[in-house]
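Review form for a predicted model. The reviewer records the input and the model, then writes brief findings.
Reviewer: anonymous (R2)
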Amino acid sequence: MISSQATTMSDDADDQRISPHYNKGEVLTPMTLGDNEDRLSCDVIVIGSGAGGATAAATIAESGRKVLLLEEGPGYQSSEYSANFTGMTSEIMRHGGATVIMGRSPIAYLEGRVLGGSTVLNGGMCWRTPEEVLNNWVKRGLERLSAKRLDPYFDLVEEVIQARYQNVGSEGENNQIFRRGAEAMGWQLQRNKRNQVHCVGTNDCVSGCPTGAKQSTVMTWIPRLLQAGGHILTHAEVIKIRRRNQRVSGVEVKLRSPLRSRRLVIEAPRVVVACGAVQTPLLLQRSKILKNKHLGRHFTVHPNAKVAALFDAPVNSMKGVHQAWQCTEFHEDGILMAPGGVPLSVIAQCFPLMGSDLTEQMRLAPYIATAGVLVDDSSSGFIKAAPFGIDRIRYDVNDFDQERFIRGVQRLSQLFFSAGARKVYTPFNEVPTLDHPEQIRRLADVSPKVKHTEYFTAHLMGTCRMSTASEEGVVKPNGESWDLPGLFIADASVMPGTIGVNPQVTIMALARLIGESIAEGA
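Model under review:
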C-alpha cells in the first residue's frame, strides 16, 4: 500500500514506499484502504482515470515512480455493464448523464464517473490529430507538437489501445444505410478505426462495453499502471489541491463508502490533474491555487446535431457497431457527418412529441436510422466555479456555425433520401420533418435559429491550454502549470485549440508526452 509517511521524489532503490506484500499494484477502495488511514504519500498523484489520466499514470509508473491514481467513481468489470442505458447512466456518468452546457441553446453532454473515465462511454473512434492542426500549433511555438515528433506517440497509442477497423459484417444496417447514401451522392467516406478487439456490434458503447471488446483504459493503460506497481484508489473525490512553500504538496480527498464518508490527505511533490475539460478547471478554481486568466477559458465542444430518418425496411440501429464510417467530403468546411447508433431513449428525443403521440411514433423505432452532424468550433465558451456547486458552464453556438449546421443537416438529409428514406427528422423546431427531398431547401429558406435547435456533444477541450508563455495559456509545453511548480495537467483541457476529429488519440498522445516529462523530472 502507499506509504503513510511523507516522501519526496527519489530514485533511491532502498526507498520503500510500497508495502513489500504487494509486488504489483492494486485497485483499492475506501473499504480495503482501512479505517485508520488518514494520511498517505507517494511520488506522483494522478487525478482521473480516463484517456489522459490513465495514460500519464502508466507512463510515470513505468519509470519507477510510485504513482497513486485517484478515481471519483467505482470500478466495474465488463460483465457488470448492461444494455439498460437508463440504469447504467445513473451508475457510471456524472449526474446520471443529465449534464448540460448552458448557452443560446443548451448542449447536452456525457461525462464518465467510473474507473476508465469517458473511455468507458465513448464510441471508440481513433483519429490522429490532423496535420494542418498540428502545423498551426507549431506556428504558435509549440514545436514539440509537430506531426514528425508526435507520430511515434500516435503509433504507440494506437498499438496500446489496439486501434483497428471493424470486422466486416459487424457494422449493422444503420452504418450500411449511411454508407449507401454517401456513395450514392459520390461523397468521400473514411472507415473508422476503433480501439476494439473483435467487436461484435452490440452497440452498447455508451453504457459500457459488456463483452470487453472495447479497449478502454481499463483494458489497456490501467493494467500497465498496475503491472508497473502503481496503485488505484476508487470512490475518491478530490476536493482540494494543496500547496506549500509556493509549490504543490498533495490533495485532500473525500472517500465514499456504503457505511460512511471520510477525509484523507495524500502528500506528493507532483500532482497530475486529468479530470477532463470541465472538471479540471473547476477543481483548480475551487482549490484557489492558480490566478491564471486563461483558466477555464477557450472552451471548445465540437457541437453536434442529430438527424434521424424513417425507412421502409427494418434498420434495428442497436444491432451493429456505434459508428463504422465518417463522411469527410465537407471536412474543409468544418463539417463532419457520421452514423451513430443510439439507445431507444435517445431516439425518442428526436421527436417533439409527448404521451400517446410519442408512444405511437416509437412503434416505428426499428425502422429509424440515426446520424449526426459535427461542426468544428469557431466559437468558444468558459467554465467557472460558483458557490453552492452551481457552476457556470457556458458555450454559445454562433451564427456562423449555425449556418454550417443548416448546410450539414441539408447534406445529411440528402444522404438519407439517397439511401431510400421515407422521412427525415431534423434537429430544428421550425422544420422538424422533411417528407421529400424537395423540402430540403426549406431549411435554408427558414434559417432555423440557434435557440430552436437541439445540440449535443461528446468532445470537451481547451480550458487549460498549453502555451509557450504564461500570458497565453495555463500550462507549459511539458504540461506543468506556469503558476505552481509540481502541478501538471494531462487531459483534453491542455489542447491549444479545436481539432475537428474525435480527440481520444490526441489526448493520449499528449498525456504520454507529459507523463514522460514528469518521469524525466522535467
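Findings: Residues 4-23 have pLDDT under 50 and may be disordered.
Further findings: The chain is about 25% helix and 20% strand.
Recommendation: see findings above.
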